[in-house]
Write a structure and sequence with these properties.
The protein has about 270 residues and is an alpha/beta fold. It has two domains: about 150 residues, NAD(P)-binding Rossmann-like Domain (Rossmann fold), CATH 3.40.50.720; about 110 residues, Dihydrodipicolinate Reductase, domain 2 (2-Layer Sandwich). The strands form two sheets. Strands 3-2-1-4-5-6-12 form a seven-stranded parallel sheet, with helices on both faces. Helix 1 packs across helix 7, helix 3 packs parallel to helix 4 and helix 5 packs parallel to helix 6. The chain is elongated, with a radius of gyration of 20 Å.
Length: about 270
């Protein structure tokens, strides 16, 4: 077990997820917070961190300099947006800093870039950092492997009304794990657009249903619907701290991992 105290920086530190990451990091003795980053022009740039987080060191300020933060960091955690996360991954690779990415909504080209950056550092990217969701992913893949084409597969996801991407990164992660059991790519199986007279469901497709509203943290269900029976596996998140704690687990794991791109399935030894 690695008991070293690791120097940690958080990207998007004043956002909802960023603040939870700061709180979660303070619960752990494995990390020392050395950097809190926000985007250029953010109103809190230059603010002393103790004004937002009273228990932090007095000399820690909210910064907009990624370069300065990476120079003093062992690992960064990033739950921001795809464009920013690609930039952070590129710079982290230059400085050989471990990069934990919880951002979702990446395009194929952005994912390809991140994978390329992982040749120079350790990158852990996951659509969901929670233990429960990653167990759900593993179980869903096993069920899909055991069932034949008589069972239709539907992934239902629910999130708060402010979420900007759909389907969620977690839903796509679930779908991808199922598609792999069939030896296919999710892009060739997913069925998202449904409106009007669309005809009967096509065999072998993985359907996605999206619900947005209120302050739902994140609910995911995988439905296997066959003749005369259904198998429904679900996970409900009630506290976003599960994602922050999962990201810190990934950060610690990443400090001893080889260069490359990994997922939470690797971190939790579920592959």
């Amino acid at each position: 077990m690695n008991n070293k105290v690791h120097k940690l920086s958080i990207i998007g530190a004043t956002g909802r997820m960023g603040q939870m990451l700061v709180r979660a990091a303070q619960e752990k003795k494995d990390f020392q917070l050395v950097g809190l980053l926000e985007e250029n022009g953010h109103e809190l740039i230059g603010t002393k961190a103790i004004e937002l987080f009273p228990s932090l060191e007095k000399n820690l300020v909210i910064s907009d300099s990624l370069d300065k933060i990476l120079k003093v960091s062992d690992v960064v955690i990033d739950f921001t947006n795809p464009e920013n996360s690609v930039k952070v991954a590129e710079e982290a690779a230059k400085y050989k800093v471990v990069d934990v990415i919880g951002t979702t909504g990446f395009s194929k080209s952005q994912i390809k870039k991140i994978k390329n950056f992982s040749k120079n550092t350790t990158i852990i990217r996951a659509g969901n950092m929670s233990l429960g969701v990653n167990i759900l992913t593993g179980i869903s893949a096993k069920v899909a492997e055991a069932l034949d084409s008589d069972f239709d597969i539907e992934i239902v996801e629910m999130h708060h009304g402010k979420k900007v991407d759909a389907p969620s990164g977690t839903a796509l992660m679930l779908g991808d794990s199922i598609a792999k059991t069939k030896g296919k790519k999710l892009d060739n199986l997913k069925d998202i657009q449904r409106d009007g007279i669309i005809g009967p469901r096509k065999k072998g497709k993985i359907g996605f249903s999206v619900i947005r509203g209120g302050d739902i943290v994140g609910n995911h269900s995988v439905i296997f619907a066959g003749p005369g029976e259904q198998i429904i596996i679900k996970h409900n998140a009630t506290d976003r701290m599960i994602f922050a704690r999962g990201a810190l687990k990934a950060a610690k794991w990443g400090m001893t991992a080889e260069k490359g791109e990994y997922s939470m399935q690797d971190v939790l030894n579920l592959n």
